[in-house]
Amino acid sequence: MNEIRAASIRALCKGLKLSRVAKLLPDLLPRASKQGQSYEDFLFELLEAELLERQTRSIKRRLKVAAFPEPKTLEGIEWEFLEGVSRQKVQELCSSEFIDKCEDLILAGPIGTGKSMIATVVGIEAIRRGHTVVHRRVADLVRELIEARDEHRLTALHAQYRKVSLLVLDELGFVPFDRYGAELLFNLLADRYRKRSTAITTNLQFSEWVQVFGCEKMTAALLDRLTHHSHICITEGPSYRSRLLNGICHNQTRANKAPERGSKQTTESV
């Protein structure tokens, strides 16, 4: 390919925003000519590479927007530490079918039993499947809503969250908030009901949610919405971190008790 034609093709690729095609073309074109590759196969290879590149960039952007504090993937789950929720159920949630149906997800259970991990895995799998996802700790979201109300941009913030396919709300019940914060959170969740999906993690039983929202009627109305079309998963067992710590301590104890190799021979020789 002569330089003038090459420059023209690069300009066309730039105009069409085909950055991957422009990058691959100088290497692929001589190879295709040498191998006698058909026009159709050559075009398919270029367009497939461009699509894969765009998908990769899109996933990276959406992962950044999601703002998961500790990204976890389905492949990285330590199933032996997960109790109460089956592998089949987690894989079902990772299919994102419940998001397509605008259903909700509630993950409840003791501290450290994998609720946030499951929510993160489900969220990242949803991103891989083309959904928009945002992670927020409940206390942080309430502060964001209060600031938006005070700055008269609450309507705009609701519209922003209405575009999110899956809103992951972590640690409901960890930090108390006042009546106004509870009302703002209720209104946001009610606004998303049957329009978008919300995943909530909490260590509270449903009967204890009134401690968070302060009003029995509002709590009952919210639970009625969230549990109507939702997947409720209850995690069980001891804390993952305590199990891990106990395992480390147990291994250390065994190591300390084990005789050093060759110690008996050394003693006898002395």
Quick rundown:
The protein is an alpha/beta fold and 270 residues long.
Please state roughly what percent of the residues sit in beta strands, choosing from under 5%, 5-15%, 15-25%, 25-35%, 35-45% or over 45%: 5-15%
Task: Provide the domain count.
Answer: 2
Averaged pLDDT, please? 86
> What is the CATH architecture term of the largest domain?
3-Layer(aba) Sandwich
CATH topology of the largest domain: Rossmann fold
Main sheet specs: 5 strands, parallel
Query: Rg from C-alpha positions?
Result: 27 Å
- What class do helices, strands and sheet pairing give? alpha/beta
What is the N-to-C order of secondary-structure elements (H for helix, E for strand)?
Answer: HHHHHEHEHHEHEHHEHH
Description:
It is a single chain. By secondary structure, the chain is α/β, with parallel strands linked by helices. The chain folds into two domains: 3-64, no CATH class; 67-242, Rossmann fold (3-Layer(aba) Sandwich), CATH 3.40.50. Helices cover 60% and strands 10% of the residues. It contains 13 helices and five strands. It has helices at residues 3-15, 19-35, 39-66, 87-94, 97-100, 115-128, 138-150, 154-162, 179-192, 210-213, 216-228, 240-257, 263-269; strands at 104-108, 133-137, 166-172, 197-202, 230-234. The chain has a five-stranded parallel β-sheet with strand order 2-3-4-1-5. Helix 9 (179-192) links the parallel strand 3 (166-172) and strand 4 (197-202). Helix 1 (3-15) packs across helix 2 (19-35) and helix 9 packs parallel to helix 11. The longest helix is centred in the first third of the chain and has 28 residues, at 39-66. The termini are far apart. Mean pLDDT is 86; it is low at 261-270.
